[in-house]
Every structure is written in structure tokens, then in C-alpha cells.
Amino acid sequence: NAGVTQTPKFRILKIGQSMTLQCTQDMNHNYMYWYRQDPGMGLKLIYYSVGAGITDKGEVPNGYNVSRSTTEDFPLRLELAAPSQTSVYFCASTLDRVDTEAFFGQGTRLTVV
Amino acid sequence: EDQVTQSPEALRLQEGESSSLNCSYTVSGLRGLFWYRQDPGKGPEFLFTLYSAGEEKEKERLKATLTKKESFLHITAPKPEDSATYLCAVQAVEYGNKLVFGAGTILRVKS
Fold first, then answer.
1. Which residues of A touch B87 (CB under 8 A)?
2. From B66's CA, which of B17, B31, B33, B35 has a CA 20 to 30 Å away?
């Protein structure tokens, strides 16, 4: 089992560019999440999904978009990248509730210059 | 005001020197408190979930406890391989489908 897989692992973007962070899970989990982690701060929830076709905003959604067309995939789209989006991004999943064990991907380190 | 606060920010221990990490929270409708371990360059890895005050869980040298306002992660006779960042997260009724994470405690165990 691969678990939660994120690509790419590293990326440098120029201000104003766009990109999509990919996340896929093979555990048939219904709930999926995107977090960002900044130095000295806890993980902040960007967006989450409770199933295919259903997404909702987290704490820090501005500048991001998501879609969930399948159970397995939950891509995160950055439009018009800004230096404030420099961070490490983690995708996670849980089976069918938020208050259960979450499985995290290895992260994507994004730098916007 | 931070809803989940972890202390200390960093902790250095000698191998075999037991200690505790703290996670305090201010929510009223707790549904679960989670501990995760995060190694450098990796995603968090699940350790424990605690659901009610008085609950305790153990795994190897780690023991997690929960009261109405805080949780402790006790580390007994730590080894260098226990070095990591330990994250606490809270799920509460007022959060809906969200987990709120603390900033973490960076633990370094020296041999």
C-alpha cells in the first residue's frame, strides 16, 4: 500500500505563476485534507473534502482552489502564486470521520520567488 | 488566542532522561485529541487518539494522558531515535470537520 502520495516533492515558482499540487490515496478513504505548515506554526487547514464532488474551505483558503472528482485524488491549485504561499504543503486522508487517525503524504516544499 | 498550545517549544534530553510534553486546549466540546510524530522532511505520523478525560494510551516508551484542559505525552527512558517533532491536534464540536494543530514540540535526545 502506497498510502497518500504527493507530487512534486519540491517546486520553485515565480510570483504570478500557477501550479497544481497532486495528491492521491489508495486506501479508499472518503475524507481528504490539504494543510500548510510554516516554521514555528501548527498545520493550518486549507481545504477539505468529505467525498467525491464535495469540498469545503478550511482556515486559510484564500489563493487556493481544490476539486474532488474521484475518491482517490484531491489536487490543490495555486493561482497567481505569491511569496506568502511559500510553505510546506501536506495532503492527508481519513476513512470516514475527521476524529480518527489521519494518514499524511510526505509533503511538497514550495518556494515562491 | 491560540486554541491549542504546546510546551515547551523545544526540549533536549539525555538518553534515559524521562520527561513530559504538554498540550493545552481551550475548546469546550472536545471530540478527540491526537498526538502525531513528525520526522524532518516527512509528513506527520499518527501516535494516539484520546477521547475523554482520564483516558491513557501507551506505545513503547510513550504514554499519552488526557484531562479536561490538557494532555501530556510522557516519554520514559528516551532513546536518540525518539528525536522528532511531536504535534498535538484537537477535534471539537465547534470545529466541524476540522482539526486544529498546535505548533509542536521539537525533541532532541542525545546519547
1. 42-43
2. B17
